[in-house]
From TrEMBL:
Name assigned to this protein: Flavin-containing monooxygenase
GO MF terms, alphabetically ordered: monooxygenase activity
Membrane-crossing segments per the record: 254-276
Species for this entry: Rhodococcus gannanensis
Similarity field: Belongs to the FAD-binding monooxygenase family. Belongs to the FMO family.
EC number in record: 1.14.13.-
Coiled coil: none
NADP is among the record's keywords: yes
Keywords carried by this UniProt record: FAD, Flavoprotein, Membrane, Monooxygenase, NADP, Oxidoreductase, Transmembrane, Transmembrane helix
InterPro entries in alphabetical order: FAD/NAD-bd_sf, Flavin_mOase, Flavin_mOase-like, FMO-like
Highest taxon listed in the record's lineage: Bacteria
SUPFAM superfamilies listed in its UniProt record: FAD/NAD(P)-binding domain
């Protein structure tokens, strides 16, 4: 098919690649002069949504990479520039720029009887082109949410986080930062270092997940399939709507879980022997690295950028997370902030925290709902983006809610010819691999290798209900998904790239790695269309992960424990 892709950022690039793999004729339009989307920086990007100067990824490159261009090496957190270079390398390796028309902005998409008419503005001229299918990959970062009614009376400077580049413009000023997400955590930390006074205003607590564990390991090492299934499938009465290794067969499910308990016990025993060996033979212990995953000295141990793993910082995070789930729930139901670097600013007094919310503003004076007041020169809005521009022309998303699409991306009304790829935010995990798997599915549908389910509306409804249950504390964030692993596995099952249960049962080492080991998207390139075979297996086993013993023991015990006495939480 002839397919239009809108946008050449991380989501658009992988969509072009997956469509080309299936033999489609692809034309990608991007309004920028090069690939990269928000990661591309140039001299003319003031006022545009762009990655700020000192940005570090909030998940490691192992999980921010594509499965068909894996990251080799230890789990580290790339800078903005390093990640842009990775995207450029991906584009160059697969010659994706040959399918991209730069400096070209899509202004309208119209549905014909059996095709799509895409209107493009380039060089001051508009033209239209016909396509069989369209994929919108331009991302949700279009219209900054500046509509904060409580601040309408504020007469000082108002800056949205999309315009933030560095902290220089805030030096010596009195600054109010409204809202906190991963970018907000960086922004409040950086502003707190140079401002005369800095206050962080929040209305609720999201869940803080530091990027580093014990100074040497990335926290996303702890993203484990068995853990996600235990949290979101077994420890709740909410019906589980997704397919996974065992499909819908109760017998297969019982066999799989029985095997997991046996192999969990074996893994625990072998891990315990390894620990004993390392204690008895010091020379066998792996050397502690001098530099941590954030590029900072490993000693003293860090939790995040400039965030020492000490009692004060750790207790602050624990207290914060308890406030994020006042019912003590084990399963997190609010979006994560995978960035704890702002914590020392509050602990050490450089940043004041107000969690009551804003009541009103008059001139420079802001009054909070707890009756506290303060004067500010500048307000920085970390308040996200509007979904108003999610739709383009005839390509409409019901209620601006991507949960009304099949698997968050495929429009149910256009016979599989229209997709919104990358409009998803995992609680923990990266958007690029999600976009890649969505694009693989979309490309296979257009090839006729996949057929959409007949009861697609029913499936959308079930999965939407499940997601809303597990994101009930972040109801406005309809792009969020509670588990990247479970979501991706359900896509992989349909694509045909999820490792078959029988292959895992016959290969205990593979079973243990996929079920108890750290998640690695290389697992989606072992079998199925466009697989990488042995290279993917090698990548899967390239990491020595010493948390498998602990995770295998914990999950095996929980699996044997009756659900009636299941622990309420593991915080």
């Amino acid at each position: 098919m002839k397919v239009c892709v809108v946008g050449a950022g991380p989501c658009g690039l992988t969509t072009v690649k997956q469509l080309l793999d299936e033999g489609h004729d692809v034309v990608c339009y991007d309004k920028n002069a090069d690939v990269g989307g928000i990661w591309l920086r140039d001299e003319d990007d003031d006022g545009k949504m762009k990655a700020y100067d000192n940005l570090h990824l909030t998940i490691s490159m192992k999980l921010m990479a594509y499965s068909d261009h894996p990251f080799a090496g230890d789990r580290v957190f790339y800078t903005r520039k390093q990640y842009f270079d990775y995207l450029r390398e991906y584009s160059d390796r697969f010659r994706l720029s040959e399918s991209i028309r730069f400096d070209s902005e899509v202004t309208n998409i119209e549905r014909r009887s059996s095709s799509w008419t895409v209107t493009v503005r380039s060089g001051g001229v508009e033209f239209a082109e016909e396509f069989d299918a369209v994929a919108v990959c331009s991302g949700p970062f279009k219209t900054p949410n500046r509509n904060i009614r409580e601040l309408e009376g504020f007469t000082g400077e108002v800056v949205h986080s999309s315009e933030y580049r560095n902290n220089e413009r805030f030096r010596g000023k009195r600054v109010l930062v409204v809202g906190l997400a991963e970018s907000g955590a960086d922004i409040v930390r950086e502003i707190g270092d140079v401002a005369e006074a800095c206050t962080l205003s929040i209305r609720s607590y999201n869940y803080i997940l530091p990027r580093v564990f014990n100074g040497t390991r990335t926290t996303d090492h702890g993203t484990v399939r068995s853990h996600h299934h235990e949290m979101l499938r077994r420890a709740t009465d909410q019906p589980f709507p997704f397919d996974t290794f065992w499909g819908r067969s109760r017998v297969a499910k019982a066999a799989f879980l029985a095997t997991s308990v046996v192999l969990g016990v074996v893994t625990t025993a072998l891990g315990a022997l390894r620990v004993l060996r390392d204690r008895l033979i010091p020379s066998m212990r792996p050397a502690r690295p001098a530099v941590g995953p954030m590029g900072e000295p490993a000693d003293p141990p860090k939790l995040d950028i400039g965030t020492v793993h000490n009692d004060a910082n750790w207790q602050f995070i624990r207290d914060w997370n308890r406030k994020s789930h006042p019912d003590g729930s084990w399963t997190q139901k609010t979006i994560f902030c995978k960035n704890a670097s702002f914590v020392p600013g509050i602990v050490e007094g450089r940043v004041q925290l107000n969690d009551a919310g804003i009541d009103k503003a008059e001139g420079a004076l802001v009054t909070f709902k707890d009756a506290a007041t303060a004067e500010f020169d500048t307000v920085v809005l970390c308040t996200g983006f509007s979904t108003d521009e999610l739709s383009i022309g005839d390509l409409q998303v019901k209620e601006g809610n991507v949960r009304n699409l099949y698997k968050h991306f495929l429009h149910p009304e256009h016979q599989g010819t229209a997709a919104f790829i990358g409009f998803v935010r995992p609680f923990s995990g990266g958007i690029p691999i999600v976009a890649e798997m969505q694009a693989r599915y979309f490309a296979r549908v257009l090839s006729g290798a996949l057929t959409l389910p007949r009861n697609i509306d029913e499936i959308i409804g079930r999965e939407k209900e499940w997601e809303e249950h597990f994101t009930e504390l972040s109801p406005r964030h309809t792009e969020s998904i509670p588990s990247q692993v479970i979501y991706l596995d359900s896509l992989a099952k349909e694509i045909g790239c999820l490792v078959p249960m029988r292959k895992m049962m016959l290969n205990p080492k593979l079973f243990i790695q996929l079920w108890f080991g750290s998640f690695n998207q290389a697992g989606y390139r072992i079998v199925g269309p466009h697989n990488m075979g042995a290279a993917a297996v090698d990548d899967l086993f390239s990491e020595f992960v010493d948390n498998r013993r602990e995770m295998a023991l914990r999950m095996s015990l929980l699996q044997l424990m009756p659900s009636s006495v299941h622990p309420k939480h593991m915080m």
